[in-house]
Design a protein that fits this description.
Layout (H helix, E strand, L loop, with lengths): L1 H15 L16 E13 L6 E18 L22 E8 L2 H11 L7 E5 L6 H14 L6 E5 L9 H24 L5 E6 L1 H15 L3 H5 L3 E5 L5 H11 L6 E5 L4 H9 L21 E4 L13 H4 L1 H11 L6 H5 L16
Parallel strand pairs: 1-5, 4-5, 4-6, 6-7, 7-8, 8-9
Antiparallel strand pairs: 1-2, 2-3
Helix pairs in contact: 1-8, 4-5, 5-7
């Protein structure tokens, strides 16, 4: 009884953070920046002005979308509002164009590419995300990390509800085959250079998809990945170890981004039987026998999202990563040389 009470208390901050949601498309304004991104999703059509909802679809949908970012955008932040959005002040959806299939997606990716030597970034969102949440976050990442090419969002059918943790974990298993198929389709279409950035429970989906591909003998497709980055991964470390073992040779570099200040993973630990999550491991020694690099962001301010998205929401972390890598799209060599952040403490204070 006490455990259930403590769990309810832990969920209150998450449930209280009801997000704004846009309705329909906004009118563009000349002073805003427009980011083009692509979406592949297993969600069904949405309601109440949503492009896609939380229910699961057996069919993949593909979309090319434009997201407007206001001129006074603050680094790491997503400026949001409810209803029909004023693009001069908030992130705003401008358009969405349906694409017929994976070949059409690959063709449009090629047409919109502005920098030939920049890999395709595929973003896989985490638990408690609507499609709008994930699309705005990817647009913010593209803008703040100064990516030149459009990126691709894989939006699996999360309930977008803090109380939907079990539904979301089931949805990960529902969508893992589709993500593996997406990687294979892109590879077959000639999109050889790919970086995967997976957040939270999306990391679990990515590991399950790579494991499935490995068991099917599709190691060539796995090895063609330029990098895999798991940000605040919501995975049991024992499960991750088994997944990594069954995948075999991991893509290089393979990055795990952690922070001890992640309040969302604290709750996830309670929901999964008080078990530590991979995104909160105490030391890189816990995965020292695996070919991975651990980046600990505990010394940076938490940014938006209760410390659950520090690398992309903390202004200091974003500036640090931009200096380190020259952009996520060029991260492979630099990430592989990176070490834990402990040496960056200044006079015992957190980096601001």
């Amino acid at each position: 009884m006490l455990y259930r009470f403590l769990l309810l208390i832990a969920l209150v901050p998450l449930a209280a953070c009801e997000r704004p949601q846009a309705t329909g498309f906004s009118t563009p304004v000349p002073e805003a920046t427009v980011e083009t991104l692509f979406i592949a999703t297993m969600r069904t059509e949405g309601q109440r002005g949503q492009m896609f909802g939380e229910k699961r679809s057996e069919t993949m949908s593909y979309v090319q979308a434009e997201i407007s970012i206001p001129a006074r955008h603050e680094l790491g932040k997503i400026e949001r509002a409810t209803g029909v959005i004023d693009a001069s002040r908030h992130f705003a959806p401008l358009s969405a164009k349906d694409l017929a299939d994976a070949p059409a997606l690959a063709k449009q990716l090629g047409k919109t590419r502005r920098k030939a030597d920049e890999p395709l970034l595929i973003y896989v969102h985490g638990y408690n995300n609507t499609l709008e949440d994930a699309a705005f976050r990817l647009a913010q990442i593209q803008h703040d990390f100064e990516l030149k090419n459009p990126a691709l969002l894989f939006s699996w059918p999360s309930a977008g509800d803090p109380l939907g943790y079990a539904y979301d974990r089931d949805s990960v298993l529902f969508a893992r085959t589709d993500f593996a198929r997406l990687l294979e389709d892109l590879n077959r279409a000639g999109q050889r250079r790919v970086i995967i950035l997976a957040h939270s429970m999306g990391s679990y989906l990515v590991m399950e998809a790579l494991r499935q591909m490995a068991l099917q003998g599709k190691t060539k497709e796995i090895q063609s990945l330029e990098a895999v980055v798991l940000m605040s991964p919501d995975i049991d470390p024992d499960v991750f170890r088994r997944q990594a073992t069954e995948i075999g040779r991991l893509p290089r570099p393979f990055i795990i981004m952690t922070t001890q200040r992640d309040r969302v993973l604290n709750v996830a630990g309670l929901l999964t039987g008080r078990k530590e999550r991979l995104g909160r491991i105490q030391s890189a020694e816990e995965v020292a026998d695996l070919d991975v690099t651990v980046m600990d962001f505990s010394l940076f301010e938490t940014g938006e999202g209760m410390g659950h998205m520090v690398p992309v929401s903390s202004p200091a972390a974003i500036r640090f990563l931009r200096r380190l890598t020259g952009g996520v799209g060029l991260a492979a060599d630099e990430f592989s040389r990176y070490v834990l952040l402990g040496e960056h403490r200044r006079d015992g204070r957190l980096l601001q």
